[in-house]
Specification:
Distance between the termini: 27 Å
Helix content: 10-25%
Strand order of the largest sheet: 1-2-3-4
Radius of gyration: 13 Å
Number of helices: 1
Structural class: alpha+beta
Strand content: 25-35%
Largest sheet: 4 strands, antiparallel
Length: 71
Amino acid sequence: MATMHADVSAVAWRRSSYTTADEGLCVEVADGLIGLVPVRDSKRPAGPAVIVTAAAWAPFVRALVDGSLVG
């Protein structure tokens, strides 16, 4: 597995619609890096970000939406 590095210091983070503060599920994703999607825990904004390719992120989100990852 390849390790990806990207400067996420100036990206615009947005909270995922799947975030629920009462359950502690706090996920943010960043826009603006062509072909890459940084993901982080919004409770730890200075912490690390996981960076995945947009090609890997799209089917993951589709699976969340259609429910095939739940359960």
